[in-house]
Amino acid sequence: MYSFRDLRRASKLNIDGQEYRMAILGNSATQFFANAIKGYANLEDINLRIYDADYDQIEVQLLDLHSETYVFQPDFILLWISTEKMYEDFLKYPKVERNNFAELYLYKIEQYWNWINEKSNAKILQMNFTEVDDKVLGQYSLKVDTSFVFQIRKLNYLLQESMTKNDTVYPIDVFAVQIDLGRENFYDPVLYYNAKMSIAKNALPYAVKPIIDVVKAILGRIKKCLILDLDNTLWGGVIGDDGINKIEIGGLGLGYVYADLQKWLKQLKENGVVLAVCSKNDEKIAKEPFLKHDEMILRLEDISIFIANWNDKVSNIKNIQKNLNIGMESIVFVDDNPFERNLVRNLIPEIEVPELPEDPAYYLDYLRRCNYFETVSPDETNVDRTQMYQLELERKKLKSSFESIEDYLIDLNMGGIIKPFEEERYSRIAQLSQRSNQFNLRTIRYTESDIRNIAENNNYMAFYYSLKDKLGDYGVVGVVIMKKRSKTEVFIEAWFMSCRVLKRSMEEFIMNQVVEKVKMKGFEKITAEYIPTVKNEMVKDLYIRMGFVDLLNGQYSLDIDTYRKQKTYIKEI
User: pTM value?
Assistant: First the structure.
């Protein structure tokens, strides 16, 4: 973890790339807090410009449409309400009325959210509440609904409930940071009374990390895959030496440590993280625990790609990455062996390689704290992601049996589905926008609330595309969002597609459908834009290939009457 001095020094760096803006509004002093956020963002290569509002000016800033906050046009508004300041408000209530404090304060916060949504498109980052140990009646305070400790815990619960109903608000669990560090490390009374700062300087790096984690997730900088070693990582012992009956898993030795780790990994898999295995082992022996050990939590069907051989792990990881068709920066590699970790870290610098503790008992707690798999848009279809990758490997095996790509694509018997945005798909569409990097013409990241707003706005034409073939269902693989610019013109605001369907003629199928839908609505022209990134070079000539006229500077235009239908091997179903 960085120190506050590290973050303060880093806050002065100049970071290239697209600029994002964050306004910080608090009811206590936020200057050090803002410096720490800026520094952490810089160290994560995020060009984040900060507006730090004046002390305790939340309502003034949010009510006035012409306030500095709204003039700043932030992408994110961070609301930090200090518990210490809140306690002062609590004590102003007559004692008999304090039992409703949590509900009244929640209403106040929800008003903040409404004002922001009315006047801005900013994402709201809402910090929850740390605790002040105000047990004026000792332990009995927990039974008294007019005590502050009772109300602050109630407020945190009500806040969580309210956030589940508001998809423009993203939680920041600063209370968990206080629990991890302890009150004595999180809070500095001298700093608070002298400067009204509610977080100790040394605690600031820990408090701002979850904020940057959420920002990274909103910007699509997410981890998609966890590659796992086996021996002394998923179980204790060496399967090739100890045999299946003597490895530590479940009730044997440190077995509970590894069983709990596997339970957590299973949860990751169920929520869309792809699990892969990379082990120096004989493949048949390495698979035995997954197939035969009664106390193994993970099974082979939970593993997307299983590689066990005696090749170096760098080569095997590159093989896994190639088959998954994701960036190395989207991968986390977990191995108990320091030599293997250092080798991978040095030869594949983009990959995340956690420095596991020496004692396996600390593995799970350490990995949880690293929080590699932050997300802002969970997707119910994620449970099938492992199967999708397994089916993709079957397709690659099938492809090798054909003499030509055309014969292979015809044999797949592919069927495409096009539908306008539907509520049950909002989450998946948003997540696809956050995950898609290579086939993404403008690389705009959408949240679920953004998708909902687009679906309900008559100025947009927005469609999602699904694909099936004889081996299985790819699910939602592509999205096109078009904005009406005039009675005759629509602009392709976004076109992104899953890399799983590249070279299937899906882009041709989508373009044919786009032109057909636009023509049916009476439009005559489609305009588009390509914004280059370090990852989307593969689509730089896409619009030219589809028959658009190059207007230079990334701008393209298509007269619908001149469009020639693209050849595709996908039939609409």
Answer: 0.81
